[in-house]
Amino acid sequence: MTFAESRSDMVPVQLPNGAVVKVEVSSTGREDVGFDVKQFQPVADAIEGVVQMIATPIQKVRPKKATVKFGMELAIEAGQLTAVIVKGSGKANLEITLEWETQPEVEP
């Protein structure tokens, strides 16, 4: 495996409600991911931050419907679980769809 290649490991992650789940995380081989229980809150905080940053401008343009898709990979940095936005099957990290409905013109 070269330095740029990545692999994944399963690590236990504790959710805010106390439940522990196994999560697949990326590892580049630069750091031992360890198998101690990691906290999910940093990932939840990252998701919340991304959603807030996207929602604010969408609310300004007031579409009837909005759909946002983004890929997120979990990795270990400095011994902590972290979220990484990743490239999905499209050409961008974020895919945003906005829909508006025009009101029919009222004839006099």
Could you list the spans in which at least 5 consecutive residues all have pLDDT below 50?
Answer: none
- Give the strand line-up of the largest sheet: 2-1-3
Please report the distance between the alpha carbons of the first and last residues.
73 Å
Sheet/helix structural class: alpha+beta
The H-and-E topology, N to C, reads as EEEHEEE
Strand element count: 6
- The oligomeric state of the chains shown is single chain
Q: How would you sum up the major sheet? A: 3 strands, mixed
User: What fraction, in percent, of the residue positions are helical?
Assistant: 10-25%
Mean pLDDT: 77
Q: What are the defining features of this structure?
A:
41% strand, 108 residues, elongated, 6 strands, single chain, three-stranded antiparallel beta sheet, alpha+beta
Provide an overview of this structure.
This protein has one domain (7-99). It is elongated. The protein has 108 residues and is α+β, with helices and mostly antiparallel strands. Helix content is 19%, strand content 41%. A hairpin with a 2-residue loop joins β4 and β5 (80-86). A 3-stranded mixed beta sheet has the order 2-1-3. The mean pLDDT is 77. It has one helix spanning 41-61, and strands at residues 7-14, 20-27, 38-39, 65-77, 80-86, 94-99.
